[in-house]
């Protein structure tokens, strides 16, 4: 007999991620047509994107993977070309019993799952991850080598960071430093230590966390300062106690800070093009 899956809202209530009262109140309100119910809940601030992904996994009886903490196998990445992974918005993250495990954000699309099976050589299994986490992981694991090549002339570029509470404007920890491995106009990735307090907060998954950053800019009199939201943290596979951080820029204290980041990005792109002109 065909089993009708539970609705996302009901699953979130069962997970204690949403109260029955909030769900009923939200249902009564007008919503934009064509917007997925879970996305609307996230946009309204009722639940996190990760909780919606977890509920989707329960709805379709698939494993849920939090890519913010999952260690991704480089061999799995090699099994699916970047163009295919981006076209279908998927991320291969491990190989288990000779089966490629792939995260998807839209498990309800049987057509998408069928296309992925056709694109993969061999057997494949699926898990659910949030769209944002997949997007960030795609940039990290497929673009990482190209970006690190760009940064090679500036291996010593540093970023200094503190846990920050934007509501009070207070710093919550001592200063740490890390080395930059990825930089764009919207965010940054770096390798550095993870304090016990921050590790405890991230594992608790009780909300969003922010770092106040000071980004080193060569030939500038001062670093570029920006408040950034932590999007993921994974093992760095470098030295014990080091982690890879992925952050999205939220607020530059001054317009000059934003300009400094733009200058640094332009400098890195120019140097990479100049030094590797024959490759283009």
Task: Give structural notes.
- The chain is of the alpha+beta class and 280 residues long.
- It folds into 3 domains: 8-59; 74-138, GMP Synthetase, Chain A, domain 3 (2-Layer Sandwich); 155-279, predicted glycosyltransferase like domains (Thrombin, subunit H).
- The protein is built from 10 helices and 10 strands.
- The strands form 2 sheets. It has a 6-stranded antiparallel β-barrel with strand order 4-6-7-10-9-8.
- The model is unreliable at 147-153 and 273-280 (pLDDT under 50).
Task: Pick out its properties.
280 residues, alpha+beta, GMP Synthetase, Chain A, domain 3, Thrombin, subunit H, three-stranded mixed β-sheet, globular, disordered C terminus
Give a quick summary of the entry.
With 280 residues, this protein is α+β, with helices and mostly antiparallel strands.
Approximate strand percentage: 25-35%
Q: Tell me the Rg in angstroms.
A: 21 Å
Assigned CATH class of the largest domain: Mainly Beta
Outline the biggest β-sheet: 6 strands, antiparallel, barrel
Instruction: Please name the fourth-level CATH homologous superfamily of the largest domain.
Output: predicted glycosyltransferase like domains
Which overall shape is indicated by the principal axes computed on the Cα atoms? globular
Low-pLDDT runs of 5+ residues are 147-153, 273-280
What structural class do you assign from the helix and strand content? alpha+beta
Could you spell the SSE succession in H and E letters? Answer: HHHHHHEEHEHEEEEHEEEH
Helicity level: 25-40%
- End-to-end span in angstroms? 58 Å
Count structural domains: 3
Strands ordered across the widest β-sheet:
4-6-7-10-9-8
Number of helices, where a helix is a run of at least 4 consecutive DSSP H or I residues: 10
Mean pLDDT: 81
What is the total tally of β strands?
A: 10
Question: According to CATH, what is the topology of the largest domain?
Answer: Thrombin, subunit H
Tell me what the CATH architecture of the largest domain is.
Answer: Beta Barrel
């Amino acid at each position: 007999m065909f089993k009708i899956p539970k609705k996302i809202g009901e699953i979130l209530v069962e997970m204690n991620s949403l109260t029955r009262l909030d769900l009923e109140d939200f249902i009564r309100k007008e919503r934009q047509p064509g917007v997925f119910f879970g996305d609307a809940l996230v946009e309204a601030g009722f639940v996190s994107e990760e909780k919606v992904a977890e509920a989707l996994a329960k709805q379709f009886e698939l494993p849920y993977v939090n890519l913010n903490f999952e260690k991704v196998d480089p061999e799995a990445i090699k099994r699916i070309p970047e163009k295919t992974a981006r076209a279908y918005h998927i991320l291969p993250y491990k190989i288990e019993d000779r089966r490629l495990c792939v995260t998807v954000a839209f498990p309800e699309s049987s057509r998408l799952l069928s296309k992925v099976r056709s694109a993969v050589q061999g057997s494949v299994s699926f898990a659910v991850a949030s769209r944002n986490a997949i997007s960030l992981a795609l940039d990290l694991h497929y673009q990482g080598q190209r970006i690190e090549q760009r940064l090679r002339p500036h291996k010593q570029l540093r970023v200094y960071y503190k846990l920050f509470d934007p509501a009070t404007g207070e710093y919550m920890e001592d200063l740490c430093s890390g080395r930059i491995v990825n930089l764009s106009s919207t965010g940054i990735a770096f390798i550095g230590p993870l304090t016990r307090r921050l590790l405890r907060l991230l594992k608790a998954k009780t909300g969003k966390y922010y770092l106040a950053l000071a980004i080193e800019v060569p030939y500038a009199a001062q670093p570029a300062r920006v408040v950034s939201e932590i999007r993921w943290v994974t093992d760095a596979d470098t030295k014990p106690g080091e982690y890879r951080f992925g952050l999205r820029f939220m607020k530059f204290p001054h317009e000059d800070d934003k300009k400094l980041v733009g200058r640094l990005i332009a400098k890195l792109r120019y140097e990479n093009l100049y030094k590797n002109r024959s490759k283009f």
